[in-house]
Give the backbone structure.
Amino acid sequence: MQNILDQLTNLDENQLIQLNTAVCNHIKFLRKAKTRAVKASLSEGDNVRWVGKRGLREGTVVSIKRKFAHVAAKDTSGIWRVPMNMLTVI
């Protein structure tokens, strides 16, 4: 990793833009793959866990959408719209 970071100083602006685009596209690919995997293993009524702005949360899946799941949190009243790649089935 350090070798890659050291080589960045040798790249011009266009090469850095190309590298940035490639890295961003790969990150998107990885997130989509994780979303598909979680969605395939998830069903309504499953207990899940996720880490958000307010820390670790647990709840029950109410509905599954394309990229998000609606989750009824155990510690509060209300339903949270949680990105699929943030959920872990417990």
Remarks:
- The chain is about 40% helix and 30% strand.
- The CA atoms of residues 40 and 66 lie 11 Å apart.
- The longest strand covers residues 55-64.
- Strands lie at 47-52, 55-64, 68-73, 79-83, 88-89.
